Amino acid sequence: MNESIVTAGNKVKSVRESKFISIETVAEHTGLTVNQIEMIENGESLSLSPLIKIARALGVRLGTFLDDIESDGPVVCRNKDYDKGVRFNSSNNSTKHLDYYSLARAKSGRYMEPFIIEIHNAKGDDFTFSSHEGEEFIYCLEGIVEVVYGQKSYTLNPGDSIYYDSIIEHGIQAVNEKAKILAVVYAPV
């Protein structure tokens, strides 16, 4: 089991219980099932979109679940160290082809979540859309990426970027076998 997923799940449960909020109430406010929330809390599954919804329902920053070492000052993440961050790799269809690496897990009090995301699917593989409160910025580092946003599709080559409201259903996939992006997610409390 991935240690970072277990740690984040434990934090979700701890925050929920400290606020005396039942799993059923969280499910009602997020649109997730009780089973999905239990799997997250037990460290069996974790993906970004449900985590953002849970953070919103509990009235906390997304970073509350991802924080590692708290630092009020700047946080430097060296190129060789980014793979040591939180890695989401769930069986959820919308994220099964995405590996997330947090670039700011040591920064406390943050409202933005920067990630390096490796995309491991070729265009045409099945995936579902996600939506959540906030905004996202994506910068293509390697490969060619297709971003489906609502009814439109955008192709990003290395050096291209896109910024959008993440409440609109969106999905991302590699046009060829593999791609890498920098993504910054802002999720309001």
Keywords:
2 domains, alpha+beta, three-stranded antiparallel β-sheet, 434 Repressor (Amino-terminal Domain), globular, Jelly Rolls, single chain
Protein model, in words:
α2 crosses α4. The chain has 2 domains: 64 residues, lambda repressor-like DNA-binding domains (434 Repressor (Amino-terminal Domain), Orthogonal Bundle); 108 residues, Jelly Rolls (Sandwich). The protein has 5 helices and 8 strands. The chain is of the alpha+beta class and 189 residues long. Helices cover 25% and strands 26% of the residues. The strands form 2 sheets. The protein has a 5-stranded antiparallel sheet with strand order 1-2-8-3-6, with no helix packed on it. Strands 5-4-7 form a 3-stranded antiparallel sheet, with no helix packed on it.
